[in-house]
Amino acid sequence: MGSRSAKPVSEILQLPILEYAKEDARLSARFELSAGVSGKTIRRSDAMIAAICVRNEAGFLTLDLKYFERLRSFGLRTLS
User: Fold this and answer.
1) Model pLDDT for residues 25-55, shown as the tens digit of each residue
2) Can you tell me the distance from the alpha carbon of 66 to that of 69, in angstroms, rounded to the nearest whole number?
3) Helix (H, G, I), strand (E, B) or coil at 43
4) Does domain 22-79 have CATH number 3.40.50.1010?
5) What is the model's pTM?
6) 80, 62 in Cβ contact below 8 A?
7) d(CA 73, CA 80)
8) Cβ(31)–Cβ(71) below 8 Å
9) What is residue 60's three-state secondary structure?
10) In this structure, how many other beta carbons lie within 10 angstroms of the beta carbon of residue 8?
11) Where are the domains positioned within the chain?
Protein backbone atom coordinates (compact mmCIF):
# COMPACT_ATOMS: atom_id res chain seq x y z
CA MET A 1 0.00 0.00 0.00
CA GLY A 2 2.87 2.40 0.75
CA SER A 3 4.28 2.07 -2.76
CA ARG A 4 0.97 3.12 -4.33
CA SER A 5 1.11 6.51 -2.64
CA ALA A 6 4.87 6.94 -3.11
CA LYS A 7 4.76 6.83 -6.91
CA PRO A 8 2.70 10.03 -7.41
CA VAL A 9 4.91 11.86 -4.92
CA SER A 10 8.07 10.86 -6.77
CA GLU A 11 6.49 11.97 -10.07
CA ILE A 12 5.52 15.33 -8.59
CA LEU A 13 9.06 15.85 -7.31
CA GLN A 14 10.31 15.49 -10.90
CA LEU A 15 8.27 18.47 -12.12
CA PRO A 16 10.28 21.60 -12.91
CA ILE A 17 10.26 24.46 -10.44
CA LEU A 18 9.11 27.70 -12.04
CA GLU A 19 10.80 30.79 -10.62
CA TYR A 20 9.00 33.99 -9.66
CA ALA A 21 10.51 36.74 -11.81
CA LYS A 22 10.14 40.52 -12.09
CA GLU A 23 7.73 40.01 -15.01
CA ASP A 24 5.54 37.92 -12.71
CA ALA A 25 5.48 40.69 -10.11
CA ARG A 26 4.21 43.15 -12.72
CA LEU A 27 1.63 40.70 -14.03
CA SER A 28 0.37 39.72 -10.59
CA ALA A 29 -0.02 43.43 -9.74
CA ARG A 30 -2.16 43.80 -12.88
CA PHE A 31 -4.31 40.88 -11.70
CA GLU A 32 -4.80 42.48 -8.29
CA LEU A 33 -5.59 45.91 -9.74
CA SER A 34 -8.01 44.46 -12.27
CA ALA A 35 -9.83 42.54 -9.57
CA GLY A 36 -10.01 45.64 -7.38
CA VAL A 37 -11.45 47.77 -10.18
CA SER A 38 -14.21 45.21 -10.72
CA GLY A 39 -14.99 45.22 -6.99
CA LYS A 40 -13.49 41.80 -6.31
CA THR A 41 -10.35 40.76 -4.54
CA ILE A 42 -7.67 38.24 -5.27
CA ARG A 43 -5.19 37.00 -2.73
CA ARG A 44 -1.67 38.18 -3.52
CA SER A 45 -0.28 34.64 -3.38
CA ASP A 46 -2.91 33.46 -5.88
CA ALA A 47 -2.11 36.36 -8.21
CA MET A 48 1.57 35.46 -7.99
CA ILE A 49 0.94 31.80 -8.79
CA ALA A 50 -1.34 32.71 -11.69
CA ALA A 51 1.28 35.11 -13.09
CA ILE A 52 3.94 32.39 -13.05
CA CYS A 53 1.60 30.07 -14.93
CA VAL A 54 0.66 32.68 -17.53
CA ARG A 55 4.28 33.69 -18.20
CA ASN A 56 5.36 30.07 -18.58
CA GLU A 57 2.24 29.11 -20.56
CA ALA A 58 1.62 26.42 -17.96
CA GLY A 59 -1.75 25.01 -17.04
CA PHE A 60 -2.92 25.54 -13.48
CA LEU A 61 -4.56 22.65 -11.64
CA THR A 62 -7.11 23.84 -9.09
CA LEU A 63 -10.35 22.73 -7.49
CA ASP A 64 -11.42 26.37 -7.16
CA LEU A 65 -12.26 27.04 -10.82
CA LYS A 66 -14.83 29.73 -10.01
CA TYR A 67 -12.25 31.79 -8.12
CA PHE A 68 -9.64 31.67 -10.89
CA GLU A 69 -12.12 31.97 -13.78
CA ARG A 70 -11.70 35.76 -13.91
CA LEU A 71 -7.99 35.36 -14.66
CA ARG A 72 -8.64 33.45 -17.86
CA SER A 73 -8.91 36.75 -19.73
CA PHE A 74 -5.22 37.25 -18.87
CA GLY A 75 -4.29 33.89 -20.37
CA LEU A 76 -4.51 31.61 -17.32
CA ARG A 77 -5.33 28.04 -18.36
CA THR A 78 -7.08 26.21 -15.54
CA LEU A 79 -7.18 22.44 -15.44
CA SER A 80 -9.60 20.33 -13.47
Assistant:
1) 999 999 999 988 988 888 999 999 999 999 9
2) 5
3) coil
4) yes
5) 0.78
6) yes
7) 18
8) yes
9) strand
10) 9
11) 22-79
